[in-house]
């Protein structure tokens, strides 16, 4: 029996603004088992960060949230703010994108870890300090008993992210959310941090949600992948399914805009035309249709009918697209062989093309 | 840290020398560059309608015809070691720091200023305590309740506080609380050492008047700083740890938002110690500000020179204190 830790069901997070209702997350469902890693992929503004902040209860007071977030069976959407705060940092923890701005510049790294530990554990300052030094050592900070008294500005970028990880792991969380943990780091450091996260995951047995726009990162770490677009899930499946038989044109777009070392350099990288849509006026029908190169293959259904997330012929592989399975297989076959669709140069109306 | 303080101290001494140079230049060099001869300069020290002989005597006495570097040397020497003035056969000694003799009272300038310092000090310290507590707490509450009635109301009052001049609010306060409803006495300075209760009772109106202006300023500054800080990533981190919101604000938010306030506070206090001119005149408090106004009205050059140096000194010292405090508060500054 699978040991489900986190279950998200029809999660909606909407922000009322002066310009209208921003539907940052609009009906997202997924589940995550202990010890496994879920990668959430999408462009900026696809709602992946807001989803994770919603799980942590950090989406802010102005947001309207509905649906269910069950952590170990306990519904966090229905729970009181105090209860969610108690769980935060203890049972679930988060690592952020920019470790420099995420660490308080006026407090030492050690005191920030000690603080995180002592919120949820009734221990002496000394014991907490020992714990902090131990954690810093485990995340690979050299001379942890000395560096514990350093301020964040005395750390390098990679070390800061290690310190953030140490802080997040201080209370042995069962769920660790990493929101673009390597985006602000040097390429050489990125791999180290990812290795560290996966090592610690197996050591602590936590479930991990890895949020990124970098498919390379999820390919390396994730068991399952959730592709988000305009606040919705467009494709969901195991890493093997997503990389082996990607089924949504948006996923194809993400894959073909990524340089790969395992292929010959025969074809150019193909960017996804246009920009992500406004989350206030999401396009009618399939939200991706204004940028989709295959919309014409459905006789206009894309523009009127919202595609439902349905299971494909693969068990557990879900996709929200009007294309038939055969058509999808054919088009991905062509695309992965290096054939760019011919109406590539068509004008793309939605959101304007970035120049 | 010790190194840092020593470096700053050396810098401060250097700065004070520059201040003395500039002050000297304003009073002795610029008039000459503007075409005044030494006789005209000397005439300023003699009073109205002097005889030619008296002016020449002063010109010689003060050595106004000497080269400028000599004069500056004497000026510095007077401040550090004191000066001897020959008037006819007798020699008077002016002990350091010597800024010469006042025209008005014929007394050395320095002790006169010193007798006015307690008034200004009492006024500045009391008011600053009031405005710090009031301004910062209103600013923080406004930031946390941004957009609410409380925020709008207090920011409206703050706008009034920044805009209304002290001679207006001060007179209104006097009219209402001292004449119409005599809750507070007509302001008269009572030294703290003599009677602390009377000291405070007499100073409450000036304190509130002065603090109102600054509290308004500080409330707006604190609100802006707090709003910015609370949207920082590290505040999100503090929340993600599961820290209670009260502690997020009080520990992580305030700490960062207050650091720039400390800088501004130090400078404001330094400036006020040189004399809160309008407040002192409004309430007839004989502090350094009042002293300055009288010195200017009487064209009492030694007094003006002395009070300029003293005010500059306070600001330079405030600067030093702020620098050191900043290094203590912000670990990134130290090295």
Q: Could you tell me the CATH topology label of the largest domain in chain A.
A: Rossmann fold
Percent helix of chain A, as a range, is: 25-40%
Structural class of chain B: mainly alpha
| CATH class category of the largest domain in chain B | Mainly Alpha
Largest sheet of chain B: 2 strands, antiparallel
With helices defined by DSSP (H or I, 4 residues minimum), what is the helix count of chain A? 13
What is the rounded Rg of chain B? 25 Å
Determine and state the CATH class of the largest domain in chain A: Alpha Beta
Going by CATH, the architecture of the largest domain in chain A would be 3-Layer(aba) Sandwich
Element order of chain B: H for helix, E for strand: HHHHEEHHHHHHHHH
Please, what is the CATH homologous superfamily of the largest domain in chain B?
MetI-like
Arithmetic mean pLDDT of chain A:
87
DSSP helix count of chain B?
Answer: 13
CATH superfamily annotation of the largest domain in chain A: P-loop containing nucleotide triphosphate hydrolases
- What general form of chain A does the structure show? globular
The topology string of helices and strands of chain A comes to EEEHEEHEHHHHHEHEHEEHHHEEH
Termini separation of chain A: 51 Å
The CATH architecture of the largest domain in chain B is: Orthogonal Bundle
Total domains of chain B, how many? 2
Q: Hey, roughly how much beta strand do the residues of chain B contain? A: under 5%
Detailed description of the structure:
The complex is a heterodimer of chains A (about 350) and B (about 325). Chain A has about 350 residues and is α/β, with parallel strands linked by helices. Chain A has 2 domains: about 5-225, 3-Layer(aba) Sandwich (Rossmann fold); about 260-315 and about 320-345, no CATH class. In chain A, about 35% of the residues lie in helices and about 20% in strands. Chain A is built from 13 helices and 12 strands. In chain A, the strands form 2 sheets. An 8-stranded mixed β-sheet of chain A has the order 6-7-8-3-9-10-12-11, with helices on both faces. In chain A, strands 2-1-4-5 form a 4-stranded antiparallel β-sheet, covered by helices on one side. In chain A, a hairpin with a 6-residue loop joins strand 11 and strand 12. Chain A is globular, with a radius of gyration of 21 Å. The termini of chain A are far apart. By secondary structure, chain B is an all-alpha fold. Chain B folds into 2 domains: about 15-95, no CATH class; about 110-330, MetI-like fold (Orthogonal Bundle). Chain B is about 75% helix and about 5% strand. Chain B has helices at about 1-35, 40-45, 50-60, 70-80, 110-145, 150-165, 165-180, 195-230, 235-240, 245-275, 275-280, 290-295, 300-330; strands at about 85, 90-95. Chain B has a two-stranded antiparallel ribbon with strand order 1-2. In chain B, a hairpin with a 2-residue loop joins strand 1 and strand 2 (about 90-95). In chain B, helix 8 (about 195-230) packs across helix 10 (about 245-275) and helix 10 runs antiparallel to helix 13 (about 300-330). Chain B is globular, with a radius of gyration of 25 Å. The termini of chain B are close together. The model of chain B has no long low-confidence stretch (mean pLDDT about 90).
């Amino acid at each position: 029996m699978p040991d489900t830790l986190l279950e998200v069901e029809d999660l909606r997070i909407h922000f009322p603004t002066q310009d209208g209702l921003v539907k940052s997350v609009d009906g997202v469902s997924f589940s995550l088992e202990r010890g496994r890693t879920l990668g959430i992929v999408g462009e900026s503004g696809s709602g992946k960060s807001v989803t994770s902040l919603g799980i942590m209860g950090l989406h802010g007071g102005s947001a309207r949230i509905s649906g269910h977030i069950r952590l170990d069976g306990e519904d966090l959407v229905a729970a009181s703010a105090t209860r969610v705060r108690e769980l935060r940092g203890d049972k679930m923890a988060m690592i952020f994108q920019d470790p420099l701005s995420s660490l308080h510049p006026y407090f030492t790294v050690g005191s920030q870890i000690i603080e995180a530990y002592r919120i949820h554990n009734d221990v002496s300052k000394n014991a907490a300090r020992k714990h902090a030094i131990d954690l810093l050592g485990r995340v690979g900070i050299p001379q942890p008993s000395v560096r514990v008294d350093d301020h964040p500005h005395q750390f390098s970028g990679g070390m800061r992210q290690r310190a953030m990880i140490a802080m997040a792991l201080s209370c042995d969380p069962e769920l660790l959310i990493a929101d673009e943990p390597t985006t602000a780091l040097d390429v050489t450091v990125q791999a180290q941090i990812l290795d560290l996260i996966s090592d610690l995951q197996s050591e602590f047995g936590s479930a991990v949600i890895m949020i990124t726009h970098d498919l390379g990162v999820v390919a390396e770490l994730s068991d399952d992948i959730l592709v988000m677009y305009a606040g919705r899930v467009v494709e969901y499946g195991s890493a093997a399914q997503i990389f082996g038989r990607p089924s949504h044109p948006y996923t194809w777009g993400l894959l073909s805009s990524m340089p790969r070392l395992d292929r010959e350099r025969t074809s150019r990288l193909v960017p996804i035309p246009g920009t992500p849509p406004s989350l206030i006026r999401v396009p009618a029908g399939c939200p991706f249709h204004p940028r989709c190169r295959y919309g014409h293959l459905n006789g206009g259904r894309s523009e009127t009918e919202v595609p439902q997330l349905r299971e494909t012929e693969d068990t557990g592989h879900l996709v929200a697209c009007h294309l038939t399975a055969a058509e999808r297989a054919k088009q991905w076959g062509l695309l992965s062989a290096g054939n760019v669709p011919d109406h590539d140069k068509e004008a793309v109306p939605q959101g304007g093309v970035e120049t | 840290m010790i190194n840092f303080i020593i470096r700053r101290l050396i810098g401060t001494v250097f700065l004070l020398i520059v201040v003395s140079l500039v002050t000297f230049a304003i009073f002795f060099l610029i008039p000459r560059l503007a075409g005044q001869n030494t006789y005209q300069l000397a005439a300023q020290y003699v009073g109205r309608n002097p005889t030619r002989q008296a002016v020449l005597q002063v010109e010689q006495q003060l050595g106004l015809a000497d080269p400028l570097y000599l004069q500056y040397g004497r000026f510095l020497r007077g401040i550090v070691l004191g000066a001897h003035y020959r008037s006819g056969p007798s020699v008077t000694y002016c002990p350091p720091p010597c800024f010469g003799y006042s025209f008005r009272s014929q007394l050395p300038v320095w002790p006169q200023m010193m007798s006015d310092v307690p008034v200004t000090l009492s006024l500045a310290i009391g008011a600053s305590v009031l405005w710090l507590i009031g301004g910062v707490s209103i600013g923080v509450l406004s930031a946390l309740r941004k957009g609410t009635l409380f925020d709008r109301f207090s920011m409206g009052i703050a706008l009034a506080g920044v805009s209304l001049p002290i001679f207006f609010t001060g007179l209104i306060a006097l009219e209402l609380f001292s004449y119409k409803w005599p809750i507070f006495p007509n302001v008269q300075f009572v030294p703290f050492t003599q009677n602390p209760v009377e000291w405070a009772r007499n100073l409450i109106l000036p304190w509130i008047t002065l603090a109102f202006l600054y509290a308004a300023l500080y409330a707006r500054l604190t609100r802006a700083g707090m709003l910015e800080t609370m949207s920082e990533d590290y505040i999100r981190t503090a929340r993600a740890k599961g820290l209670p919101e009260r502690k997020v604000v009080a520990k992580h938010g305030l700490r960062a938002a207050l650091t720039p306030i400390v800088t501004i506070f130090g400078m404001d206090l330094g400036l006020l110690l040189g004399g809160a001119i309008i407040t002192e005149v409004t309430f007839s408090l004989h502090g350094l500000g009042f002293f300055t106004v009288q010195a200017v009205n009487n064209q009492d050059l030694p007094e003006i020179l002395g009070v300029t140096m003293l005010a500059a000194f306070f600001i330079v010292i405030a600067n030093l204190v702020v620098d050191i405090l900043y290094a203590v508060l912000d670990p990134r500054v130290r090295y």
